[in-house]
Design goal:
By secondary structure, the protein is mainly β. The protein has a single domain, classed as UDP N-Acetylglucosamine Acyltransferase, domain 1. It has one helix and 20 strands. Strand 19 and strand 20 form a beta hairpin. The radius of gyration is 18 Å and the shape is globular. The relative contact order is 0.10.
């Protein structure tokens, strides 16, 4: 088999496997979730996927490949709530995104994440210089991302932030404070520009 033909066969097999390995309603893996909506899918391969019993995925929502969805610090950890990460209907979480939930994250309906968006409700502190920053945790604060919002590539959303409905956040922005409905925000830290 020649190089191009072998490449076509290998790519075709990978695409077939990716479709078969996706998590969808009615699958054993989807049954681990608090809710897994009709018509929704998590593409293969996920990077990290744990705490599913505290994750709600709405209807007709697509979670792209290489996404990390985690509730808690590690698989099997006892959690503080039952529905800690909630993702709405008709939402798209793009390739390579990471959502790290320790307390409460809500993502509305019709929200679009471009690739490599990072959202967390937990952060670290440097209160005690004798201890590594990675072992010092700040207080968890809820995150809300309103319906019909768009977060462009490489956006970071920090703990305690509420992004209103219909908000556009520009590429490479770091959202450190609330953003009102319908605004356009850019920068690090993100500021309203329209």
């Amino acid at each position: 088999m020649s190089g191009p033909r072998l490449a076509d066969v290998a790519l075709g097999a990978w695409e077939w496997f990716g479709r078969k390995a996706a998590i969808g309603p009615g699958s054993r893996r989807a049954a681990r979730f608090a809710e897994f909506g009709e018509g929704s899918a998590i593409c293969f391969p996920p990077v990290a996927l744990y705490g599913e019993h505290a994750i709600v995925i709405g209807k007709h929502t697509l979670i792209g490949p290489n996404v990390a969805l985690s509730v808690g610090m590690a698989p099997g950890q006892e959690l503080i709530g039952e529905r800690m990460l909630r993702i709405g209907d008709h939402t798209l979480i793009g390739r390579g995104c990471s959502i790290a939930c320790h307390f409460d994250i809500e993502i509305g309906d019709d929200v679009f994440f471009a690739p490599n968006v990072y959202v967390t409700d937990q952060n670290h502190t440097n209160a005690d210089p004798a201890i590594g920053v990675g072992r010092q945790f700040a207080e968890e604060k809820p995150v809300v991302i309103g319906s019909r919002s768009w977060l462009a590539t490489n956006v970071v959303v920090t703990p305690g932030v509420t992004i209103g409905e219909g908000v556009t956040v520009g590429a490479n922005s770091v959202v450190t404070s609330d953003l009102p409905d319908g605004c356009i925000a850019v920068g690090a830290p993100a500021r309203v520009v329209g």
